[in-house]
Each structure stands twice: as C-alpha cells, then as structure tokens.
Amino acid sequence: MKKTVFTLAAVLLGGLALSGTALAQGYPTKPVTVVVPFSAGGPTDTVARLLAEVMSQDLGQQVVVQNVGGAGGTLGAGQVATAPNDGYTLLLHHIGMSTAPTLYRSLPYDPAKDFAPIGLITSVPMTLVARKDFEPTTLAELMDYIKANGENVTYAHAGIGSASQLCGMLLMDALDTQMTTVPYQGAGPAMTDIIGGQIDMICDQTTNTTSQIKAGEVKAYAVTSQNRLDALPDVPTTKEGGLGLEIGVWHGLYAPAGTDPAIIERLEKSLQVALANETVISRFAELGTYPVTAEEATPDALAQTLASQTELWRAVIEAAGVYAD
User: Fold this and answer.
1) Which superfamily is assigned to 31-123+248-320 in CATH?
2) How far is CA 228 from the centre of its chain?
3) Which residues of the chain have pLDDT under 50?
4) Which residues constitute the signal peptide according to the record (predicted)?
5) Which residue pairs, CB below 8 angstroms and at least 24 apart, start in 237-245?
6) Global confidence as pTM
7) Which of 35, 186, 189, 263 is the most core-located residue (most Cβ within 10 A)?
8) Per-residue pLDDT tens over the stretch 191-202
C-alpha cells in the first residue's frame, strides 16, 4: 500500500512538473508587462520602450511598459519582487539595483535573492549639462564656478538612488564642494526645469540629454566616458577637462525569483534579438550609448555585474554618508 501511494505521488509530481514545462514552452500566451520604476520620458523609460517594440514582435505578444515611479525606483522594483513568477511581470532597472541595498536602511526586497536576472542591456555614459544661459562656458570654468559658489549652485537629480543623484555625489566629492541638491520625481521633470532655467545643472544619462544638447536647449560641459561619443563629438570627456569622474549607468532586465528557467531562457533570447536589431542599435547610437554583446545579455553576466557593483557602491555611499529612510 505504501508503495502504491508513493508511486501515485511520484506520478502526480511528475505531472505537475510536466505541466509547468508545457506552460513554459507555450510562453507567452498574453501580454508581458515590463515595469520601469521611474517616470515616463526618463532615460530608463526610453531604453525600455525601444526594446519593448522589438521584443513584442519576437515573442508574438505585446510587451507593455508600465511606469511605477517613486522612492528612487524601489517602489516599482518592490512591486515586481512580489509579482507572480510566471514571466508576465518583468523589471527593467538600472544601476539603482546595486545602490539600493546600501542607500535604504529598510529595503523591502533583496535585489540578489528576490529577482531572476535575464540579462544586461546597455551601459549609458553621463553628461554634465546646465541651463543654456549658465555662466561657465567650459568644464574648467564650471569646476571653478562650483567651488566658488558652492550651495548657491542648484543641482537637480531624479530622486534618491537615481543615476543623476549618484553622479552628483561623485562630482561634489571630486570638487570637495557641496551644491544645493533639488530632488525630482524622475529625470524627465528635472530636465524640463533645466531647460526652463529654474535649476542650474544636472549630471544625467545621455539617453536623457543628447537630444536637448543637439537642439541647443542645454549647455553641455563633458561626458563621463573614457572616450568622446560619436553622438556628441564636440563634447569633451571629463578626463580631458581635468575632472576625475567616470561613471556609466548599466541597465538590466529581471523577472521575479523562482521564474521557470525555460521562461528565463526565452526572455534572454528575445532580449538578444532586440539588442541585435538595427533600429535599436541606431537609436541607441543617437542617444550616445550602445547595446551590450550577446555574451553580456545573459543571466550570469547580469548577476555578476549586480554583485560587483553592489560592493563598489556600498563603499562610495557609506563614505558619503547619504541614506534614505
């Protein structure tokens, strides 16, 4: 009798496993939502929408971008961490996944344990830009101006943990000078006030500044990459201007932890298709960035990047003593 019960249980468990595999093989059968934990119109949102269009075609189901801003990206990330792990709710986040564990004393999720990595997407350089009538005309003049005026200089950022806040922290540390920081609910609104002249400056991703620089709506001082960008050939690097500030903002795609490996594999392949798409490559180039290689658009590469970057930013944030509630 015991043998019969054991055999029946094994059959039932095997059937459940087979059922899960069958579901994964048929994935997706309905639209997939990609949560962007920042406001619409910002740099991460731009990356997500470029990928969503191509991934929709590849998956045969619409990939919908949903903006869930607030709390420096932790609100949207937390929503995905507790979502069903069926592959229909994903997270597209940036470097903030590696800074949140140190910035937030009571983070409601663990980036390393509560998510299944799918792959890296891109690494975006930053640009130092200001309102177009800001007095300094070169990076050297800008550095001198900030040192001389300190807290009279207003610096915008897209909220606690945002790339623009992190770049601002590094800038102020490099200059040993504090500016007056003004937080916004996203990079889009911050850029609007830079263009409008209400705020002096920001350091933000090229995906959110390149078009405004080209249109002459803001004044550009430097890019934070090692080399000049094809999209902005006249903008010098921070190194050229004598500023020791290099930072790139990487983006990654995640699913909730426990998602079927077969679904992760399907999403990984779809991500790689999108990153190899000529339109995506061209549009990324216009924005001053580029897709990662197929070898980097993998779960292992994203997991390794997250782990190493978490340790790197822990030291930076602890030294700055900047924390969120």
Assistant:
1) Bordetella uptake gene, domain 1 (3.40.190.150)
2) 21
3) 1-6, 17-19
4) 1-24
5) 238/128, 238/139, 240/139, 241/138, 241/139, 241/140, 241/143, 242/139, 242/140, 242/143, 243/139, 243/143, 243/171, 243/174, 244/174, 245/167, 245/170, 245/171, 245/174
6) 0.80
7) 186
8) 999 999 999 999
